[in-house]
Amino acid sequence: MPKSRKDPNKPKGVKSAYIFFVEKERANNNENGGELSFADLSKLCGAKWADMGDEDKASFVKLSEKDRKRHQKEMENYVPPEKSDSDSDEETTTRKKKKKTKDPNAPKRPTTAYFFFAADRRPEVKEQNPSYSITQVASALGEIWRSFDDEDKVPYEAKAAKDKQRYLTEIAKYNSK
User: Which residue ranges form the domains of the chain, and what is each CATH number?
Assistant: First the structure.
């Protein structure tokens, strides 16, 4: 279901006791030079709030209750707008691009040198490390590939070039149909 636009006349939501606490801490931080970043201030506030007792939190809970009453009073008088004809689903949602359907008769894309290498070396890596997961095997193969010199990659690049030629001839034949 598409997300509808927010009514600007709808009353603001209820602030929790923690939100009132964070606002007070942020104001204190700004008065004292505001050296803390948002992330650092958030971590500090979370730790302080967790260490506070119920007596310390009571003033913030009272503010939250007062805000809850304000919200309830404003919601009693609030009437949401009716959905008009101009608010159709097509206009309010962003259109997603439709995924191109792949022709099953299209030629298979060329394999890269790395994939030829991985297919050649995967059994060897699995044999040396039988406890490795699929991702760990892939990571090990990547490490080996990156450590190769250009000379070590030549046989795999030759296979890739040959496969690319195969693809180019097949795609030309496919496109001419």
Answer: 17-82 (1.10.30.10), 113-176 (1.10.30.10)
Summarised one tens digit per residue, pLDDT across range 13-50 is 899 999 999 989 888 888 887 777 888 888 888 998 99
- In terms of Cβ atoms closer than 10 Å to its own Cβ (0-12, 13-18, 19+), residue 27 is exposed
- For 118-155, b/e burial (b = at least 16 CB within 10 A) is beebeeebeeeeeeeeeeebeebbeeebeeeeeeebee
Read off the pTM.
Answer: 0.45
Q: Cα dist. 24→29, 49, 62, 88, 165 in Å?
A: 9, 12, 14, 43, 68
- Rounded distance, CA 54 to CA 135, Å? 48
The residues, ordered by sequence, that sit 6+ positions from 48 with a Cβ below 8 Å of its Cβ are: 21, 25
Tokens of 34: 């505001």
pLDDT in tens, 106-141: 999 999 999 999 999 999 999 999 999 999 999 999
Query: Is residue 171 scored above 80 in pLDDT?
Result: yes
For the chain, how many residues are written? 177
